Amino acid sequence: MELIWFVVFTLLLAGYFALEGFDLGVGLLMPVIGRTQETRDRMVAAMAPFVLANEVWLVAVAGALFGVYPSLEGEVLFGLYPMVVAMLLSWVVRDAGLWFRRRIGGAGWRRFWDLMIMLGSLGLSFGWGVTLYAVATGFGSSLLHPVGLLLGVVVTLLFAWHGWTFLGWRAPETAGITRSGRALALSGLAAAVPVLAVLAACLPYLLDHSAPSSTLGVMGLMILPFAPVMVGAQVWVWRVFRPGRGAVPAPSFF
Q: pLDDT of 35-49, one tens digit each?
């Protein structure tokens, strides 16, 4: 049972990186590709239908972490408290930018919230890399450790590349390139590689700190039946908003 839930937790976190990674990547690329307001509008419009569905995976990751590995809850929140707070603020700022940027028509208003989207995306991307290193070292290293900072840069670059590939698939006229669905799947897999590597290295530790088998069994009966619903909703979103269908006529975020 412990191994089954380890696989479930790994799939959830890797799925979050593969899916939310391109949303964050698009935000990172706004000052690079989005040199005009119209281009930034279209970049946001390209990812808008996927954002909320992708963020559901993070909620599932948090639930699995605290349910399957309850003894780690205190370690994560205490050992990574400054980083957790910074990432939560980045998440709030990024989402606020998505929702508020078109509530007022002024150019200065939009530029401000576009900047918040970029900074929030940067904070989340970089923070995930630093967090992964802290987890891999058992929370025994400084959050400013050079290797952790380097991993933060690597994750940020992977997300930016994933976002660039997504734009080439969803909005090639905006990105200036054309990418296939296969290329997008490969970039998503690349974005998830740091998660897969860290969790594979932490396998013995996580198995030793799992909740009792009886608890995991009850969780399986209560939660796993809903997994097909989450996956089915994700598939529906991708089918409806794939290129050629469900194009957003007005470059906005809804």
A: 888 899 899 999 988
